[in-house]
Amino acid sequence: MAKSKFSLAVLSLNLLIVATVVVAFAAAGTLFYTVAALAPSIEVGSPEISKGGIGGGGSSLTMTLPVTISNPGQLTLSDVSAQVSVKDSHGATLLTGSAGPVSIPAGARNVLTNFTVSFDLSGLPEETLRRLITEQELLSVTGTIGASIPPLASVMGSAAATIPWSPPLSNFSVGDPQFSPLNSSHARITVPVSFDNLSDLLPVVGTAEMSVYDPQGVKVGGGTLEMEAPKGSYSSGIVVIMALPDVSTLLTEDAVLEYRVVGSFSAYGAELFEEDQDVSLEWGAPVKDLALGTPEKQPYNSTHFALTVPVSFKDNSGFLPVQGTLSATIYDSSGSNIGGSGLINVGVPAGGTFSQTLTAYVSLGALSETSLTAELTFDTEYGTAQKVVVLNA
Amino acid sequence: MPKLLDLELTGASLAFRAVLGAVLAAAAFLFLYFVPANLEALAARVLPEMGGTFAAAAPMIAALIHPMLPLAGLLIAAFTFPAVLLRGSKLYGFFVAGLGILFLAYVYLAFQGGAITIAVPENMIPAYSVTAALQLRLTNLMLLFMIPPVLTIVKGFVLVAGKREQ
Question: Into how many domains does chain B fold?
């Protein structure tokens, strides 16, 4: 009786052992089949990248990666999720991305989930942004993925990597301003700007602004350069149109004109560079060294004699031609007007010289004067230059 | 008629048991000791021929095997031969219970306590310096596989108790 009781117990245990072994291996087989059938069904589509911008232009980037998964197995796949984040070398989070969690029931086909990564430069602190845009560094990438096949298994994957970051704005430099006159009232300043965009992802979409101030702090000109630079070297110039001082005050004397150039460069929603430098413009007088030579007296008629005097000047401006009329008025030692010349038309190209003989007609009463005074008047389109010269006979 | 402890066996029966015990012990030695103990070397020989990612994955195989697993397999192989040979004897229950305990330990070690962590080799993604790890949680499956060894332990004690009753 006792023996049969134990035999029955052993038989029952044997049956249970066999049954549980079968169940365990069936569960493992089902799990293995589900995983094995799942892996090849995962299809990753083409990433869609949408770029935003600074105030509409270029500072944000969103990548959407469509992933379709089919589950031909017998077990539901649940809590499928993925996260990724990217930090710079100072620990600031630059990028986050996530997908899911989604559940894919057994037998479901082509369940779509999007893995979305957002990269918004304008949301970063300015210091971080400036560093990221201008400096090479190593970024830390961490990612996790997870999924479970309840109640048997779950999987969690994590990865960390360092990837080199190539800045979009490397070797940024502002060159020396180049002056080029436009006309008698305005000049053009070109400020060279160059940099290298080393980034495969981010085009540089930015604005450079320059303003020019005279020594009194009055803004005399300004210019803007809109830049859009994909990967590669970029080189251009900010063109500033600036007002020149009144030429009539600079008609006969060379000068050095002092200005202050203030500039800024903004991109990705932040001001990245400032430029403040003093510049000087060499000014050449359009009527330089206006001079009279040795006068000569010649008979003219019964009331006047002719006084011929060589007149010369140099157009030192280099860019302003001089046109106008030249005349002289002759005074005796008491200051009385005793004669004068007619108008001489003057036309001198920029950088040229003028040399001509001026003839004045002087009253014969002044023939005995040993010294006369000539007042030269030169009317130009820029103003009038006058010069008083003593003529020693 | 040869006598083995309290068993009286015919020569043929003893020979059959010895052969069966040796075959089962050899099978246990092969599958529960030799394969786990040499899995990494086997994978290193097979996976590179598959190329690409599989070649780089060979070192990951080592992470699947708990260092104590081959020892547990070796003990199972060692217990198998006497358990078969002494079936029905007064020690049979102890050997069955012992095998149950060893299988229980084997399952626990095979599943690494239910959480298997695999470090992905850095050279799997050669362009970047990547450290990656996978953690598989298989606790429920492990518990399911632990039921037969537990029942085997119970069976062993029932056999011991049954022998004592006689």
Answer: 1
